[in-house]
Specification:
Length: 85
């Protein structure tokens, strides 16, 4: 894993941690997925699947929906970074 221009942080205790998020690194080489012991958002962690994408909270009712939201934000960040339209 290399540190990308987009960092996706996942708490090991969150429902999202069970998903194969490293596939995002393959799909988007600019992305680094970092799994950490705790992100200090315990109330959110217990309530919903969530991640931090470049320090922005992304959450949804299901892990699958959360991954979709993560990808939307990744695409926005890449568009901003590369100056796309």
């Amino acid at each position: 894993m290399s540190l990308g221009i987009i960092v996706v942080e996942i708490c090991d205790r969150n429902a999202l941690a069970l998903e194969a998020l490293e596939e995002l690194e393959t799909k988007y080489p600019e992305v680094a997925v970092i799994r950490t012991n705790c992100l200090n958002m315990c109330n959110l962690c217990r309530a919903r699947p969530y991640a931090l994408v470049n320090e922005r909270r992304v959450y949804a009712k299901t892990p699958e929906a959360c991954i979709e939201e993560i990808e939307v934000l990744i695409k926005e960040e890449l568009n901003d970074f590369y100056g796309g339209e």
